[in-house]
Amino acid sequence: MNLTELKEKHAQYQASGLNLNIQRGQPSDEDFDLSLPLIDILKRDDYKTRSGIDVRNYPGGVRGIPEACELFSELLGAEPGEMVVGNNSSLEMMTNVLQWALIKGVKNSPQPWIRETPKMIVTVPGYDRHFSLLETLGFEMVPVEMTADGPDIEAVERLAKSDPQIKGIYFVPTYNNPTGDTISEDVAKRLVTLDAAAPDFTILADDAYSVHHLDDNPGEIPNLLQLAKSAGNPDRVILFGSTSKVTFSSGGIGLLAMSESNLGYWLKLFSMQTIGPNKIEQWRHVRFLEQYPGGLKGLMRDHAAIIKPKFDATLRILNEEFAGTDLATWTEPRGGYFISFNTARPVASRVVELAAEAGVSLTPAGATYPGGVDPENSNIRIAPTRPPLGEIEEAVRVMANCVKLASAEYDEAN
Amino acid sequence: MNLTELKEKHAQYQASGLNLNIQRGQPSDEDFDLSLPLIDILKRDDYKTRSGIDVRNYPGGVRGIPEACELFSELLGAEPGEMVVGNNSSLEMMTNVLQWALIKGVKNSPQPWIRETPKMIVTVPGYDRHFSLLETLGFEMVPVEMTADGPDIEAVERLAKSDPQIKGIYFVPTYNNPTGDTISEDVAKRLVTLDAAAPDFTILADDAYSVHHLDDNPGEIPNLLQLAKSAGNPDRVILFGSTSKVTFSSGGIGLLAMSESNLGYWLKLFSMQTIGPNKIEQWRHVRFLEQYPGGLKGLMRDHAAIIKPKFDATLRILNEEFAGTDLATWTEPRGGYFISFNTARPVASRVVELAAEAGVSLTPAGATYPGGVDPENSNIRIAPTRPPLGEIEEAVRVMANCVKLASAEYDEAN
To answer: Do A88 and B60 lie within an 8 Å CB cutoff?
Structure first.
């Protein structure tokens, strides 16, 4: 189609009164329905755990109940003794770790990070909440590219080696938000062994999608914590996760894992700030996941059965619309919640604007970069999980026309 | 009794194999039983709040669900629009506020607190977790006496006026831990209006016992937040509270209240660290407290019916043992969880040691002072809420003998 035809088609979409949204990284109601028994599975006489803890009272420890540490260790590939099971938000747990790092330092810090104008490596495109958090905490962000194998490891090695103010890397190792890329074994090994100028270089791995496979056979996914321990760097890695996209969003359980030697340092800090997390909620999750057919794995398979058709439809339409053109590239994730789409021309913000005109909400252009600025103005995050299948198909069709129209406008103007 | 007789009686207690504990500020199982329906009151189809929020998904806001803000505003005497309803721990919310204050400052801070080697006024005797938290965060503590009318206001005024590094006061305004004292209207007014050298002087009021009355007619208790707003200092006060001793301990809801003008500043920070608290748990609390006979007030009356006899018995025995002697003084709280007991001689640590020999656990001597050191070695915190009535009576009898024995030992040696 030429520019005029594309504009006409866009006008038709505008006239049709659509109200579609593919910007939100949220489960669908159908996903939530799988976990409905979680709400009322715990009965009022079921307040003593198998380990003998009365979940109504304070004692039980800052790490959460042992049954939850055991159950959720599977989610992060950690030992139960390496787990801290918290309240509902892994983002809050990450914030807390970064706050303490600034105020006190991490285990091997010569001084509190805040005294050094700390810098943090982040991967781009990446997760906007990581960027806004780091900015608010006063970190200078040093972006490196997220490749199909994980963070651009040569850039990370070079940066970490040359600058002692670089205190670590903060990223999503499995099914990255938004690219869906997963770190390779080789990159993971180089990350846990790299020669850093800072003695307290820390890998903060937001493993939010560690069990969110779309493939039946996801293969072996590298575990940074285990690799770091094997490499003799047990204190370098802190893993985070949650059940926000396993059970309920903001109604799940936040998780953290680190080596036991590292935990010795951190538990002293955590125990200053809380007597412990909500144990009733943890016990509820244990009861629910233990009775779910196939347990955690069974639940994730049932999620995949809902989500995979949405990814498949999105990818199918992108192929139909753009295969053989020079207009765009996109990722084909094997898990997670997002597809990363790149326009060949610097028109992402124009695409988002056009889509909004046509009644389709996309993640704001630039959101996947620190400060909200994509230097190429090309990345668009597609979140196909929340809407019903039919709405996704329609939204992606509309978006595709916006990409073509914005690209044609650009070509005409340049 | 003379020293020999006291020693004999102590030996008898030792031989009788007691195992009693009056050190823990915890509700009893009978208290917890009042809230058992909270565990399973929410049914699996009850996931949409009256305000239209699906508690299974992220959206709903960082302040918690409106129904919880409304319900719990009663607990802190605040407007619903001044509330932040969190997860399970008010201590964690206090920590978070202090962490941000150090890293970014409070609303009116010229710079982050950490740049100034900040000092914080605390009241003694006071709550050990406040002291250990402040110490870990790097605050220098400046203790002032907790009087029957609240913090020694003349000392607070003098300190705040003279030293810009003094960033505020952190204390328990209602039924203080451990004295049970409540701030008077006059002291509260002077606190919210005092002339501070620091422009960002902040009153952190841990109102953990705001509705924990033992009297049927507790009278009017001053509200620091409302007084601060009336006095034109709306940003000076932050109130904290929780339902840890209303519903379940570590299984309740943490609360914070501040003026709406102040919230504007803080919500920007809070929204960086979490999408929001666990809304399902909040909705559960709303459903439970709304159906409880008499609501929150009714539940607190039922708690008082369990707890008051324990306080009465403790005070009766203390009177029987010590009235007319020069050995000890103690407080007679009208609410809260503790009785503060002072030996006339510097023997508190010896009393705790003797009591342990006789099978009675008391709060470690000094715990009610910063750094764990009571300069008078006289304060003992009695926590009568957790054990059954009979055990409390026995434990207080044993403790009384230990006080007499330690005092007699002291008199003989001096």
So the answer is: no
According to DSSP, the residues that pair with B335 across neighbouring strands are B213
Give me the sign of the Cα torsion angle B290, B292, B297, B303: negative
For the record, the structure tokens of A99 come out as 């706050």
Q: What share of chain B is helix, strand, coil (3-state, %, to 5)?
A: 45, 15, 40
CB A327 within 8 A of CB A407: yes
B351 closest CA partner among B403, B309, B301, B396: B403
Chain A, residues 292-351, CB within 8 A of chain B, namely: none
Q: What single-letter DSSP state applies at residue A17?
A: T
Specify the 3-state DSSP secondary structure of B115.
Answer: helix
Same fold, B3-25+297-413 and B45-291: no
Round to whole Å and give the CA distance between B266 and A235: 33
Which regions of chain A are under pLDDT 70?
A: none
3-state secondary structure of B45: coil
Distance CA B201, CA A34 (A): 50
Q: Which residue of A has its CA nearest to B55?
A: A251
Question: Which residues numbered 44-103 in A keep a CB inside 8 Å of some CB on B?
Answer: 44-47, 54-58, 60, 87-89, 91-92, 95-96, 99-100, 102-103
Q: In the structure encoding, which two tokens stand for residue B284, read together?
A: 């559960």
Nearest alpha carbon to residue A176 among A147, A219, A133: A147
Break chain A down into helix, strand, coil percent, rounded to 5: 45, 15, 40
Q: What is the secondary structure of A149-165 as a DSSP string?
A: TEE-HHHHHHHHHH-TT
Alpha-carbon gap, residue B321 to B307, rounded angstroms: 22
pLDDT tens digits, residue range A16-39? 999 999 999 999 999 999 999 999
- Classified as helix, coil or strand, B412 is helix
Please state, in angstroms and rounded to a whole number, the distance separating the CA atoms of residues A367 and A390: 26
Interface test with A, best of B31, B114, B249, B271 (most A CBs within 10 A): B249
State how far the Cα of A274 lies from the Cα of B133, in Å rounded to an integer: 10
From chain A, pick out residues whose CB is under 8 angstroms from the CB of B89. 273-277
Counts of helices then strands in chain B (DSSP H, E): 14, 13
Closest CA to A24 of A383, A411, A404, A391: A383
Report pTM.
0.97
d(CA B16, CA A279): 36
What is the ipTM for the molecules in this complex? 0.97
Whats the size of chain A, residue-wise? 414
Query: Residue A361 and residue B234: Cα distance in Å, rounded?
Result: 39
- Total residues found in chain B within this entry: 414
Domain spanning B45-291: CATH 3.40.50.620: no
**What is d(CA A373, CA A345) in angstroms, rounded to the nearest whole number?**
16
Q: Which CATH class is domain B3-25+297-413?
A: alpha beta
Q: What sections of A323-388 are H helices per DSSP?
A: 348-357
How many CB atoms sit inside 10 A of residue A232's CB? 9
Rounded to whole angstroms, the Cα distance separating A138 from A134 reads: 6
- Tell me the average pLDDT across B20-25: 94
Distance from CA of A320 to the nearest CA of B (A): 33
Q: Is the dihedral of CA B210, B216, B221, B223 positive or negative?
A: positive
Interface with chain A: mutation pick from B29, B53, B244, B280, highest number of A CBs within 10 Å = B280
Residue B217's pLDDT is 86
Domain boundaries, chain B: 3-25+297-413, 45-291
CA distance B403 to B414: 16
Token pair listed for A251: 């109604």
